[in-house]
Amino acid sequence: MSFVVIVVVGALIGSFLGKFLAITFPQGQIHDLLATEIAAGLNPTVLDLRVIEITLGCLLRFNVTSVIGMIVSAVTFKTLFH
């Protein structure tokens, strides 16, 4: 369980750094690389049963730096705890 939390935190930090670097760099190839995201999952869907309304969905967005953040956090976790 803690491994999953560490990898998710690494993805969040990597995503934040990617957004920051994309804003920092001017328009060009590096900006395009950092700003490109891949989205996978299910968009929110509403199930209205008149008595109760349920919203289901899960959407994951990855960019280059979030993947790098996940890899770095996983390797760090493995070296520190195993």
Features:
single chain; 82 residues; alpha+beta; two-stranded antiparallel sheet; 3 helices; flat
Please give a structural write-up.
- The protein has 82 residues and is α+β, with helices and mostly antiparallel strands.
- It has one domain (2-81).
- 59% of the residues lie in helices and 26% in strands.
- The protein is built from three helices and two strands.
- A two-stranded antiparallel ribbon has the order 1-2.
- Strand 1 and strand 2 (53-62) form a beta hairpin.
- Helix 1 runs antiparallel to helix 2 (29-35) and helix 1 (2-24) runs antiparallel to helix 3.
- The protein is flat.
- The relative contact order is 0.24.
Short description, anyone?
The chain is an alpha+beta fold. It is 59% helix and 26% strand. The chain contains three helices and two strands; from the N terminus they run ααββα.
The main sheet comes to: 2 strands, antiparallel
| Mean pLDDT across residues | 88
Would you identify the regions where 5 or more consecutive residues have pLDDT less than 50?
Answer: none
Give the radius of gyration: 17 Å
* DSSP, total strands: 2
Structural class: alpha+beta
The strand order across the widest sheet is 1-2
| Secondary structure: helix percent | 55-70%
Question: What topology emerges from the helices and strands here?
Answer:
Layout: H1 2-24, H2 29-35, E1 38-48, E2 53-62, H3 64-81
Antiparallel strand pairs: 1-2
